[in-house]
Amino acid sequence: MADPVLSIRNLSVDIPTRRGTVKPVEDVSYDIHPGEILGVVGESGAGKSMAGNAVIGLLNRPAHIAQGEIWLNGQRIDQLKGDAMRRLRGKEIGMIFQDPLTSLNPLLRIGDQLTETMLTHLRISPAEAERRAVAALDEVGIPGAAERLNSYPHEFSGGMRQRVVIALALCAEPSLVIADEPTTALDVSVQAQIIALLKRLCRERGTAVMLITHDMGVIAEAADRVAVMYAGRLAELGPVRTVLTHPSHPYTDGLMASTPLASRGQRRLRQIPGAMPRLDAIPEGCAFHPRCPFAADRCRAAPAPTVTDGQAACWFPIVQEKVS
Ligand SMILES: Nc1ncnc2c1ncn2[C@@H]1O[C@H](COP(=O)(O)OP(=O)(O)O)[C@@H](O)[C@H]1O
Ligand SMILES: [Mg+2]
Question: According to DSSP H, which parts of 56-157 are helical?
């Protein structure tokens, strides 16, 4: 297999508070390969965005990387500062957030935003940048691309605006895209189109994608592999088909049972009892044990084992028939 584009090793994020340090991300490791979409899924507050923001150097103080390493195309990036990190964000890492307006300058025509980004990061002429801007808008499905270069962000609908953001995120030819809840703010009717677009364009370019979402439907639709997060930790990591249809971690199993996924032929939805703990009240042992139907003494006593690819952070993983 090709070398990973992104490699996160034993990443922990700390937030010092008056009542002690909390860990929104703890000992998380995963790789993303060229052209691969890794879905990062979990309930709100699980630490998904913190992990993504750590990669792009956008943790808000006092949150900071306390431990671990982040490698991008063989270069260690977790200690990069200021300009070096900003260059990386524009050139090597494209970003798509929930609200398209966070990525777009409201005062600039979208053509100028696209050409400026390309001229900053690519060795091309202004004329070539303009030609590529039209092609980029055309490719993301903006009708009348050449004329729309002159439009401002507010002149687009939410779905069209997120298409513009995708064009902007990809225009400097990044090797990694981090998409944090890219469809959560959009009408349900356009969500699937945006996910399909992102998936197609990144596949064609061989771009690695970290797709952060709380929505199992999005994962099922787009991801090649899944990282399931719970209370800042990785609960399970593996190929999407295996994890969704034959989960090993009781939390993943519970998530699946509470999600209406047509592809799963689901009968009745079942909610996981209780709620994810606050960061300052994470229980001893396995963080999931108070909600787990299979919890035993060992789960209350010892932290769950660390996840490696294809495994669950669980003392008693659900043993399923092998997927053929
Ligand atoms: N400044 C802060 N102080 C304490 N906790 C924080 C702070 N900022 C974020 N958190 C907590 O960090 C956790 C992880 O948040 P986040 O990564 O945004 O979750 P997700 O993206 O999975 O919904 C949440 O429980 C949130 O409450
Ligand atoms: Mg988030």
Answer: 82-91, 110-121, 126-139, 145-148
**In terms of pTM, does the model score above 0.85?**
yes
Ligand 1 atom at shortest distance from the alpha carbon of 62: 1
> pLDDT digit string (tens) for 163-208?
999 999 999 999 999 999 999 999 998 999 999 999 999 999 999 9
Residue 45 CA to ligand 1 center (angstroms) comes to 5
Closest protein CA for atom 24 of ligand 1: 45
Closest C-alpha to ligand 1, atom 3: 15
CA–CA separation, 119 and 10 (whole Å)? 36
Which ligand minimizes its atom distance to the CA of 182? 2
Tell me whether residue 259 is exposed, middle or buried, using C-beta atoms within 10 angstroms of its C-beta: 0 to 12, 13 to 18, 19 or more.
middle
Residue 162 main-chain phi, psi, to 5 deg: -70, -30
CA distances from 203 to 175, 180, 276 (A): 11, 18, 34
Q: Which of 49, 212, 219 to mutate to test the pocket of ligand 1 (most atoms within 8 A of CB)?
A: 49
Distance (angstroms) between ligand 2 centre and the Cα of 272 equals 20
Task: Report how far residue 178's alpha carbon sits from residue 158's, in angstroms, rounded to the nearest whole number.
Answer: 19
Phi/psi at 159 (nearest 5 deg)?
A: -65, -45
> Which residue in 317, 230, 318 sits closest to 275, CA to CA?
230
